[in-house]
Design brief:
heterodimer, A: mainly alpha, 9 helices, B: mainly alpha, disordered N terminus, transcription (chain A), transcription coregulator activity (chain A), Med31_sf (chain A), Mediator_Med31 (chain A), Mediator of RNA polymerase II transcription subunit 31 (chain A)
């Protein structure tokens, strides 16, 4: 699917370059939002209070669609973007401690990701186990 | 007895009773007359024959009425049989009604569940993505450690689940910042949704890298970053530095 078609239909040939640039710049910008220090920076300079910026954040939600999301290298940015829709979150980001806390938690989540996932998968497997009839022979079924 | 009759005919029972009463009265008169005639002569001439005639007449009436009563009895019996029949049919109908209601209920449930299933099929279809794409994407976010930290990560490692300022600078936005600030504005078409310009903040003159000593972020010297990287990861970082928006095919507007 041509991701540019939606955004390019308004612009004719010569504007294709412009649209391409816009796509790339928005792709880069949204991923910057995954960086809590950057968010703190934005908050302290008052960008998060500006109505145009808030509108822009809402506009960026289109990156949640699968056809756009597949270009994101840092998916954490989507979660941050969702949180940024809330005024309370934007206000809190002014505090450096808040940003630091988010950064720490984010890193911890990042570090423990695979461990948490295996635990989650084990829990799910255990849930489903009683419903399955036991195999007649000794080999345990692998999922 | 007369008082009970309406415009319609008197009931058979009433008529029978009235006839019996007449008979009683007539018989009494006759017997009185006969009793009197023993002692005295008949005061009126043909009164006895009159009474007798009346008696016979009344008796005939009585017999007729009895016949009628008997027939009415038969009819009444038939009516009762028919009523029983009607009752039976009524209960049959009620039974069928119950069954219909049950069937309707079952069908309604089945239809509802079928509709729900169709809805979820639709939903699943809408959200369907080719498995190849999912695997590609999973590989992209895993290979770059964007979602899960590298197994040998320790504090001091500059790698992060988000773009570092080095990466930010190396991207398109970072390069745009080297142009005069008007240029940043000029790059955006008038998008009503975006409601205006991209903030100049994207020009990487933000000082936050200096605030992050505690997290162990290194100063943005190219050499130092790579100096601390374990061998084999250099290539990854180089890729990171080159462009955050990977896949040149992604920004091409060519069809596909």
């Amino acid at each position: 699917m041509n991701h540019c078609v939606n955004r390019t239909t308004i612009f004719a040939g010569a504007h294709k370059e412009q649209a391409r640039n816009r796509f790339q710049s928005e792709l880069e910008f949204i991923q910057c939002l995954a960086n809590p220090n950057y968010l703190n920076f934005l908050a302290q300079r008052g960008f998060l209070r500006e109505r145009p910026f808030i509108n822009y954040l809402k506009y960026l939600l289109y990156w949640k669609e699968p056809e756009y999301a597949k270009f994101l290298k840092y998916p954490h940015c989507l979660h941050m973007l969702e949180l940024l829709q809330y005024e309370h979150f934007r206000k809190e980001l002014v505090n450096a401690q808040c940003a630091k806390f988010i950064d720490e938690q984010q890193l911890l989540h990042w570090q423990h990701y695979s461990r948490k996932r295996t635990r989650l998968q084990q829990a799910l497997a255990e849930q489903q186990l009683p419903q399955q009839p036991p195999p007649p022979h000794g080999n345990a079924p692998t999922k | 007895r007369e008082t009970m009759s309406t415009a319609a005919e008197k009931s058979t029972k009433e008529r029978l009773l009235s006839v019996l009463d007449d008979l009683e009265v007539l018989s009494r008169e006759l017997i009185e007359m006969l009793a009197l005639s023993r002692s005295q002569k008949l005061p009126q001439a043909g009164e006895d024959t009159q009474i007798l005639e009346l008696l016979v007449q009344r008796d005939r009436e009585f017999q007729e009425l009895m016949d009628v009563a008997q027939q009415q009895g038969k009819v009444h019996q038939e009516m009762q049989l028919l009523e029983k029949e009607v009752e039976k049919r009524d209960s049959d109908i009620q039974q069928l009604q119950k069954q219909l209601k049950e069937a309707e209920h079952i069908l309604a449930t089945a239809v509802y569940q079928a509709k729900e299933k169709l809805k979820s099929i639709d939903k699943a279809r809408k959200g369907s993505i080719s498995s190849e794409e999912i695997i590609k994407y999973a590989h992209r976010i895993s290979a770059s450690n964007a979602v899960c930290a590298p197994l040998n990560w320790v504090p001091g490692d500059p790698r992060r689940p988000y773009p570092t300022d080095l990466e930010m600078r190396s991207g398109m936005l970072g390069h745009m910042a080297n142009l005069p600030t008007n240029g940043v504005n000029g790059h955006l078409p008038g998008d009503a949704l975006a409601a205006g310009r991209l903030p100049e903040v994207l020009t990487p003159h933000y000082p936050f890298q200096s605030m992050d000593v505690s997290v162990g972020m290194l100063p943005p010297h190219h050499g130092n970053d790579f100096g601390l990287e374990p061998p084999g990861h250099n290539k990854e970082n180089e890729d990171d530095v080159e462009a955050m928006s990977t896949d040149s095919s992604s920004s091409s507007s060519d069809s596909d």
